[in-house]
Amino acid sequence: MNVFLKSKINSLGRLLLFRDKDIFYKPYYGSLDFFRLAIYNIFAPGRILNRIRYKRFPVSKPKVPVLDNSLVVKPGDLSFDDLVELTAATISRHGAAVVDGFFSEKYIKEFRNKHSSFFPSSMTDSSNVPEIFEGGTMSLDIQDLWMNEFIVKVIQKYIGRLPYARRYAEVCEIRPRRKTTSRDFSRPNCNGNRLLAEEWHVDHSCLIQAAVFFDDVVPDGSHMEVISGTNRMPCSPMTLSHEYVEKSHWASKVLPCVGKKGSIQFHCGNVYHHLNAEPLNSRCWLKFEFTSGPNIMTSPEGIYSLLAGTTNYKDLTSERKQILSGILPLKSNKGYQPHHRGGFVPVKYKGI
Ligand SMILES: [Fe+2]
Hints:
Largest sheet: 8 strands, mixed
Structural class: alpha+beta
Bound molecules: fe (ii) ion
């Protein structure tokens, strides 16, 4: 009975709130409209409560002036601290930032050569190249890029605490074969690849990602776009149709995440974003997902790969150990014990 009633309420809700079939159709019932978001947050408050709990809502206002029409930050002559401040302010304002050419081409080239087994081969015949290449979990040998002081400081400034690594670091290259719209995806037998993330979506509510470009990422090529400022709104996790964005004033808020090789792209999980795919145009990056707390994807294979390099875990700074503590649990003096709500927690009692 409950299921029947719920489906009736859902149908009625759709009939009343999502009448325009040109912009709202299955499964694209996301909206940025105040009234619809208010209704959503009253009836399904889980996401907003999680954001409040982990201090990801409300988002504090940028403390320094930020460009209105671009999320690309040019390091120029800025000092380290000023660049951290400006980048964090840009994420607050737009939900994302690209720090253009933060790492030099030389550094990127040397890094790629040193860790070449994790990158796609440039010799491969392009007709055989997969749409999505994942290079496998990298070891602690890349800690200086992964937990680079600048990356950690920017994220810390934006989320208000030292982040936890959410996943193991991995190279990812995408080379879309086609452009797929939300209308295409809504049709049965659509041959688009959902994993390319071309649909307008938000990520987990406490996520923040940094990615280092190993290609020049240009407006005419495959690149991510965000709807500026949606990270500041109490958004639902529902996807938006392409028509919803294109036919509304939100179209003018769409900003491209572009920059030259060596740039760092940051994006908050709460900003609406998607891949603007350019057929056969690739984008290779090394991505680092972080979180304010939840959704840490620990895995035995990940831990194994993390320790498979030449870096000794014991030599990591205590801050880096703390950042990794979710995906590489810290050694505990008295070991761990099961928690009544699942998982394990360090043994707390005194004595033996
Ligand atoms: Fe995403």
